[in-house]
Design goal:
Distance between the termini: 59 Å
Largest sheet: 7 strands, mixed
Number of helices: 18
Strand content: 15-25%
Shape: globular
Bound molecules: ligand PCD
Cofactor: Mo-molybdopterin cytosine dinucleotide
Structural class: alpha+beta
Organism: Actinomadura livida
InterPro entries: Ald_Oxase/Xan_DH_a/b, Ald_Oxase/Xan_DH_a/b_sf, Ald_Oxase/xanthine_DH-like, AldOxase/xan_DH_MoCoBD1, AldOxase/xan_DH_MoCoBD2, AldOxase/xan_DH_Mopterin-bd_sf, CO_Mo_DH_lsu
Number of domains: 3
Keywords: Molybdenum, Oxidoreductase
CATH class of the largest domain: Alpha Beta
Strand order of the largest sheet: 3-7-1-14-11-12-13
Radius of gyration: 28 Å
EC number: 1.2.7.4
Length: about 800
Amino acid sequence: GPNGHGPNGHGGPNGHHGFGRVARKEDARFIRGQGNYVDDIKLPGMLYGAILRSPHAHARLLSVDTAAAEAHPQVRAVITGETLAGLNLAWMPTLSNDVQAVLATDKVRYQGQEVAFVVAETHYAARDALELIDVDYEALPPVVDARTALDDGAPLIRDDVEGRTDNRIFDWEAGDAEQTGRVFDDAEVVIAQDMLYPRVHPAPLETCGIVADMDKVTGKLTVHTTTQAPHAHRTVYALVAGLPEHKIRVVSPDIGGGFGNKVGIYPGYVCAIVGSIVTGRPVKWMEDRSENLMTTSFARDYHMRGEIAATRDGRIRGLRVEVLADHGAFNGTAQPTKFPAGFFHVFTGSYDIEAAHCAVTGVYTNKAPGGVAYACSFRITEAAYLVERMIDLLAAELGTDPAELRLRNLLRAEQFPYSSPTGWEYDSGDYPRTLRTAMDIAGYDELRAEQADRRARAADAREDGPLMGIGISFFTEAVGAGPRKHMDILGLGMADGAELRVHPTGKAVLRISVQTQGQGHETTFAQIVAHELGIPVDDVDVVHGDTDQTPFGLGTYGSRSTPVSGAATAVVARKVRERARIVAGAMLEADPEDLEWTPGRWIVRGDPSSGATMQEIAMAAHGSLELPDGVEGHLDATTVYNPPNLTYPFGAYIAVVDVDPGTGKVTVRRFIAVDDCGVRINPMIVEGQVHGGLADGVGMALMQVMAFDEDGNHLGASFMDYLLPTSMECPSWELGETVTPSPHHPLGAKGVGESATVGSPAAIVNAVVDALHPYGVRHADMPLTPANVWRVIQGRPFRT
Ligand code: PCD
């Protein structure tokens, strides 16, 4: 069929099986506008919620007068912090074991913080009634710059926590400080650089929302919500609200992009649930764009100081970094409990480095909480950016070509599995091959020759056109959290269940705990089952995003679906295949041990004429066939997959930019991306994932920052100010691939969804800095907007 054999597809007796460029099943509804998003859900008698938010970044809350709002004819309830305090729900736990105000009771701590919740007959009435609420604030000085948060006399943000005297959240370190110190002490070359990875936002096109429906008769709470982790949300609601877990159903319908923004639980969700309990009717709350940008999980905001030590001939020896992490007013960072700075300490990246050390200090500021892994496995983006900038700084210092310097220091294939100096075990890789592939596609030497020629012309003032820059970045990601013994979120271990049932006619239904937000799981997970069972992809239905219908698991983020649930799916399908072998043995009157698997069929070893297809076996398993003792019949299985390690996808990216020195405008002329995510289940989806991540990288490198003024006012609360890259800013991506399977993943696959977001910003920044090299510029912080680029070259002479 049109969804037929991919490069890895096996044509069994039933045609098209398994891996390859299968068209996305979900697109049939999306391209017809038939998606079912949270805001499409309309329940009988449904009411609408709206949130009153603080205009101040830091203020004492003196009084909240709701009388006029309550008198509004269409208003059914007004909920304040005081109402919630009475229910013991004014505060909720964050994903990092801090607490966060659901509705403020004592103070407001960032602009846009939730103060009151109105429930009304219509969305408009709810919004109108917000204006009738009278709040008395006493403004307090805010902490806006993280670098002043620990100053003596800095305003204390978290005076709700007893005994707290400053804004420090944590100090954390990894690596060997002493050994690293020794390497730096006797190094021939040491370079240091301060850099900021600015606060950015995942900005999914669909904002966050919920429809909460408490059935008073059955006591069952159903919430339809934009969540990347339905099971984790259910358990947290059970623990926080004291509701019995089996009486909570979390449904995540179609999601219009997550990017980490939909991992956590937001105050609006709790308010909508309380609203439904109070009114006895379903309550919908859907935030608008400004609410999404101002109050939901931001990403990054790492002030970093990197140092690199090397020999004169370009052998990197040590890497050291100090980070000041701005976590906003509540520590709501989403990451495994034991990792307060996420996976930042993978920061030695893709290089063979003797010694490394990092120290991270987290601080509170008067900004929205979050610190989410926006297309990033828990702070790996910051880490990849840091090391890739440091390598380029070193290359500039040594006068070495940055590709050459990388090739000299990249981990070599024979070093895998590789134990990093900060305690990671990379599963597999062949890095130089991947970088060389990218250089070949780019025509690297010709590009450098063109650049040299253009620089010479510019120096002779024969040309005043744009300056050309070439930037490389090589990244290693670490995706697929657990294993459960090292990784949990709020005590919930990171392992995922899967259930597979084959119906009598050989059609299958797979139930998984992860939830797609656009990645195409309904297709790729069906492909895994098809690949393992040798049945058509179209014969497999994927059920997900509903806690009543699926096994427990921790959800989709940190590119963990393929590494963890993908593995679970392969394992559960293999269990079913083994059951099918026993049934086939009974059918063929053969010892199951004498059977051999050919795609879609068990045959008597060496005799393809005698065999049974998966469909025939399924029917027999449900029929009257006599099965061996202890074999239950039917064709189904369940599993829980606890990954032995993370998977380590990697890639080599090369950006070619043109910078107009007159205006500072950067144009990304070309972008070459060679990704290695092990075995690709659906190469077309993988390429789409890479395209999206590369566009993210253009956005962060050139256009985006969540900015605040000195009073803590948010300056980018709409898409007029917070710019999303479009096709106008993106070149036609040039992709390549290498395939280094993961040795521990049953399919050899690694995650890929985040790779391009992690790897691409450094390539673009490196390219822009490379273009500005003749001005003596060695670093500039993102975003490299025209104004910022123009500013860094002012007053600097052009010299080649
Ligand atoms: N794949 C294949 N092969 C391989 C790998 C992979 O095929 N080797 C495919 C799969 O299956 C899917 C995809 O691809 O479908 C992806 O995958 P992964 O990597 O595993 O991932 P996931 O888990 O699924 O997902 C997640 C991611 C993330 S994380 C993010 S951000 C983003 C990405 O994903 N998001 C999103 N991508 C995307 N897309 C879309 N469309 N949307 C969205 O939202 Mo975080 O942490 O959350 O921040």
